[in-house]
Every structure is written in C-alpha cells, then in structure tokens.
Amino acid sequence: MALKQITTTMNLITILLLSSAAAFAPFTPLKAAGVSSTSSTLKMVADDAKVILVTGSSRGLGKAIALDLGKAGQKVVINYVSDGSKEAAEGTVEEIKASGGDAIAIQADSSDPAAIKDMFSQVVDAFGTCDVLVNNAGITKDGLVARMKPANWQAVIDVNLSGVFYCTQAFFKVASKKRTGRIINISSVVGQIGNPGQANYAAAKGGVIALTKSNAKEFATRNVTVNCVCPGFIASDMTAALSEEYLEKVSSGIPLKRLGKPEEVAGMTRFLALDPACDYITGHTFNVDGGIAIGV
Ligand code: NAP
Questions:
Q1: Residue 89 in 3-state DSSP?
Q2: Is the CB of residue 191 below 6 angstroms from any atom belonging to ligand 1?
Q3: Domains of the chain: which residue ranges?
Q4: Which SS3 state, helix, strand or coil, does residue 232 take?
Q5: pLDDT of residue 274
Q6: Nearest protein CA to atom 25 of ligand 1, as residue
Q7: Residue 186 carries which DSSP code?
Q8: What confidence tens digit (pLDDT) does each residue in 154-205 have?
Q9: In Å, what is the CA distance from 183 to each residue of 126, 129, 175?
Q10: Residue 56 and residue 189: Cα distance in Å, rounded?
Q11: Is the dihedral of CA 67, 72, 73, 79 positive or negative?
Q12: Would you say the CB of residue 134 lies under 6 angstroms from ligand 1?
C-alpha cells in the first residue's frame, strides 16, 4: 500500500475513532479461494468435546476465540483466507493441541460458497460432524459515502454479510439433521449505532444482527440456536500501532474507560457456544463494548 494511501487511511480511522470510539478491524485483502488443511493427531480432548468452526481465526478476535475454546478441551477448526496466514493458523493449531484441545486449520474464503461447502466436508471428514459455528471473519474498507468505490462497498458486504450467510447455510445442513447446533455471529457496535466512514461495514454488521434474528426463528424447530456478539473497541494489531496518548483519548469516550480485550469477546463467545444455559437463548445480541452502545 502506498504511503499516501496509508496516511489517508490512518487519518480517516483517527477521525472515526474520535467521533464514536467504535471498533475497527484492520484492512485484510481478499484472496482467491484455496483449501488445504493440517492433520489432527491429538486424542486428549474431553469425551463431550464439541466441534467448533471459527471463521477468520488465524489472528485477532478469531484467534483469541479459537484458543479459548481449545483450552476448554474442544475440537476447533481454524479458518483463514490469506496464504500469508498459513503459518499463524498452524501455530494456533499446535497451541490448542498443547493446551488439551484438538484442532485443524483450513484455508477457505468465507465469501465463496463453493469453498465453504468444501471446508465443511473437510471438517466432517476430520471430526465427524460440526456442532458450533462462530462467524467471525471480517474486513474493513473504510471511506466516506461520497467517495466510496462500489468495489469497496461490495467486498465488505461479501465477506461480512454474505460470508455469514454462506457459512450458516452450510453449517445448518449438518446441524439440522442432528437437531442440535449453535451459531454465534460476531457483529459490531457499528452495526447498532452506525459510524461515519463505515457505511459498508455498518450495513453488513447491522445485516448480521437482522440475519441472527431471522435465522433464530427459522432454525428453532431444529433446535439450532443463533446469537450475536457485538464487540466495541477491542485492542488489536491495529490499535497496537497507535500512540499511548491517542489510545487514552479513545478510552476516555468509553464508559468503562479502556479498550476491550480479545479474551473478553472470547469469554462471551465461549458462554454462547458451550454453556448449558444457552440452550434456551436464541436470536439475541450481546455487547462486549465497555458500555459504548448504552442507550441504543
Ligand atoms: P483481523 O485481526 O483483521 O482478523 C480478521 C480475520 O478474518 C483473519 O483471520 C482473516 O484471515 C479472516 N478473514 C478475512 N477475510 C476472510 C475471508 N474472506 N474468509 C476467511 N477468513 C477471512 O480482525 P479482528 O479485528 O480480529 O475482527 C474479527 C471480527 O470481529 C470481525 O468480524 C470484525 O468485524 C469484528 N469486530 C472487531 C472489532 C475490533 O475492535 N477488532 C470490533 C468489533 C467487531 P487472514 O489472516 O487469512 O487474512
């Protein structure tokens, strides 16, 4: 990316953070689908371990969610899209195995229905089923509406909304036959309260909340629950690049006066994925945002 473009992007992000203290994920380029996987060898997982697919879990919140579930003794599928993330994904697989869970990594573009179908076949081949889907993969391509290119609108809708739909569809084929399953969609406070410069992201994330409710109603007869997590401003690779002084300014706009931690989003996701109480919770949205969205 040219220096000028990076500077412009950072300026825009700075304006956006100051305007709402909302959350942003760093830009991630789309790559053509290609599927490969590592093999699973560990046999230390609990007898009642669930098979949990976390899309976009090579880094960021997805990685924290996958590690948390792995440490809880679950069988986790690490999904990623970029060739450059293969090593990181396989590293996470090893970390999970070392902590008592089991895992495999699969490269697949979550916005490509054929690649997703293939990924679910690989999951069933490796682990026999899929019990929980965490739709986490997401990208940003920020820009003011007046200047937003159609390709940047479409790319964010494709990954952040259509990808959730395609993965859900493929997961439901497996879960509906068993008459049990849980889906957790990672949305964002931006999908609830909007954000200047993120029309594409807000529309996609708001769509995910609506999709959660609709799917919860549609899937209830098959005992498949669907819930949503809305993170606020979470410490990430991108925020690590910002100055301490700047981050203090952002935090001052958050009721709890600090950024969230990926582990806090992971904790909520684990609850929705595994806790027996969640057998009777569906169609709802849970914020992990330090209070940003209070009053919405
Ligand atoms: P991140 O660090 O940029 O990681 C994004 C992950 O998604 C990576 O694993 C990436 O894989 C994967 N991904 C991107 N496009 C994909 C595709 N087409 N198919 C499969 N995987 C794909 O993002 P993050 O900050 O952790 O955000 C994770 C989720 O939380 C997103 O849905 C985001 O919108 C949401 N969220 C984040 C924040 C925050 O503050 N960070 C706040 C609210 C909501 P590669 O490594 O292969 O590129």
A1: helix
A2: no
A3: 3-19+49-288
A4: coil
A5: 97
A6: 25
A7: E
A8: 999 999 999 999 999 999 999 999 999 999 999 999 999 998 999 999 999 9
A9: 20, 14, 10
A10: 19
A11: negative
A12: no
Angle separating helix axes 60-71 and 86-98, nearest 10 degrees: 20
Task: Kindly give, in sequence order, each residue whose CB lies less than 8 Å from that of residue 205, ignoring residues fewer than 6 positions away.
Answer: 160, 187, 188, 190, 191, 230
Does the beta carbon of 82 lie inside 6 Å of ligand 1? yes
CB contact at 8 A, 187 and 209? yes
Distance 80 CA to ligand 1 centre (A): 9
Q: Phi-psi category of 179—alpha, beta or left, where left has phi over 0 and alpha has psi -120 to 50? A: left
Catalytic residue numbers?
201
102-107 and 51-54 beta bridge pairing: unpaired
Looking at residue 277, what DSSP letter applies?
A: G
Q: Could you tell me if 287 and 230 are in contact, meaning their C-beta atoms sit under 8 angstroms apart?
A: yes
Q: Is 61 in the pocket of ligand 1 (CB under 6 A)?
A: yes
- Work out the pLDDT band at 119, boundaries 50, 70, 90: very high
Regarding the domain delimited by 3-19+49-288, which CATH topology (the fold level of the hierarchy) does it fall under?
Rossmann fold (3.40.50)
Q: Ligand 1 centre and the CA of 1: distance in Å?
A: 19
Q: What are phi and psi of 188, to 5 degrees?
A: -165, 155
DSSP β-ladder status, 51-54 and 132-135: parallel
Alpha-carbon dihedral angle through residues 78, 152, 233, 294, given to the nearest 10 degrees: -120
Ligand 1 binding pocket mutation candidate from 17, 53, 136, 264 (most atoms within 8 A of CB): 136
| Helix 3-20 and helix 244-252, axial crossing angle in degrees, nearest 10 | 30
- Contact between residue 117 and residue 123 where contact means Cβ atoms under 8 Å apart: no
List the structure tokens of 178: 């068993």
Atom of ligand 1 nearest to the CA of 135: 32
